[in-house]
Specification:
This protein has 297 residues and is an alpha/beta fold. The protein has two domains: 2-170, 3-Layer(aba) Sandwich (Rossmann fold), CATH 3.40.50.300; 185-293, K homology (KH) domain (GMP Synthetase, Chain A, domain 3, 2-Layer Sandwich), CATH 3.30.300. Helix content is 36%, strand content 25%. It contains nine helices and ten strands. The chain has helices at residues 16-24, 67-80, 99-111, 127-138, 157-166, 185-200, 239-246, 251-268, 288-293, and strands at residues 2-10, 42-48, 51-57, 85-91, 114-120, 145-148, 169-170, 210-220, 226-236, 271-280. Strands 1, 2, 3, 4, 5, 6 and 7 form a seven-stranded mixed sheet that branches. Strands 8-9-10 form a three-stranded mixed sheet. β8 (210-220) and β9 (226-236) form a beta hairpin. It is globular, with a radius of gyration of 20 Å.
């Protein structure tokens, strides 16, 4: 039996969370084409016949513009120091190594960990472009493996697990084989609601969104069917953002709630009655106490 911890590093929007979700086979991390989709360090567990792999999905590396951004980037790099293997995700669409990827490479060299390079989104380019990117990165670091993948077409994803397993040492299972994440149900609900908001809202609004589940209670309907009553608050930075989130006659908030409820019912395998509210908490992304109170660090 082998086991170990694996950090996934990469810039924002390279597809780290999509890779995690595909490998685990469950929705663990929020996926949206927006920066700061992953804010906290999320553990996801893959149980194989001869190994247990604990993935740590880190916030995307970006140029911080707030206290929250500083903490997110700092946490991502700190995690990489204490794992057995690093998976570094880059995009096949890149022409060269950008500043963000250069910074990650520097940290990988400092940590001197076994590192697997994953080149994502190969479905968007031709083979010659993939070969060029492979050659560029080969000259930068002695990677344990270089794997071109596509989460859209499920190409080569299983190879990632095979290569990680090769680089793990013998060890015990740290989690029960039935578990696939260390997140609580409440955290998964919050992430699901936030993901829907990220996907539906304008670019300026999502960075300042935070979701808190206020109540979660299971009960029986009049027809004696089980149902989850969930009440959650979406926090935003400004009053103008609150109006955008609610939408005309509550249309946007209703849409966020509908999409989130559909996902939650699939995830929880039970009917869900979801109620959402929107509150303004000005400049919370620079309020360290607020960030800590909401378990974002």
């Amino acid at each position: 039996m082998k086991s170990g911890f694996v950090a996934i590093l990469g810039r924002t929007n390279v597809g780290k969370s999509s890779i995690i979700n595909k490998l685990v086979g469950e929705k663990i991390a929020a996926v949206a084409n927006k920066t700061q989709t992953t804010r906290t360090v999320i553990r996801a567990i893959v149980n194989r016949p001869n190994s247990q792999i604990i993935f740590i999905d880190t916030p995307g590396i970006h140029k911080p513009k707030s206290k929250l951004g500083d903490i997110m980037v700092e946490n991502a790099f700190e995690v990489s120091k204490d794992v057995d293997v690093v998976v570094f995700v880059v995009e096949a669409t890149s022409d060269d190594i950008g500043k963000g990827d250069e910074l990650i490479l520097e940290k990988i060299k400092e940590a001197n960990k076994k590192t697997i390079l994953v080149i994502n989104k190969i479905d968007l380019v031709d083979k010659a472009k993939v070969a060029k990117i492979i050659e560029i990165y080969k000259n930068e670091y002695d990677f344990s493996a270089i794997i071109p993948v596509s989460t859209v077409k499920d190409t080569n994803l299983e190879i990632i697990l095979d290569e990680i397993e090769k680089n793990l040492k013998e060890g015990p299972a740290y989690y029960d084989i039935e578990e696939y994440t260390d997140q609580t149900t409440r955290q998964l609900v919050e992430e699901t609601i936030r993901e829907k908001a990220l996907k539906l809202l304008n670019d300026e609004v999502p960075h300042g969104i935070l979701v808190e589940v206020e109540k979660m209670k299971k009960r029986k309907t009049l027809e004696n069917e089980p149902i989850y009553n969930i009440e959650a608050t979406i926090y935003c930075l400004r009053e103008s953002h609150k109006g955008i989130i609610i939408g005309k006659n509550g249309s946007m908030l209703k849409k966020i709630g509908t999409y989130a409820r559909q996902d939650l019912e699939r995830m929880l395998e039970i009917k869900v009655n979801l109620k959402l509210w929107v509150k303004v908490r000005e400049n919370w992304i620079n309020n360290e106490k607020f960030i800590k109170d909401f378990r974002l660090v």
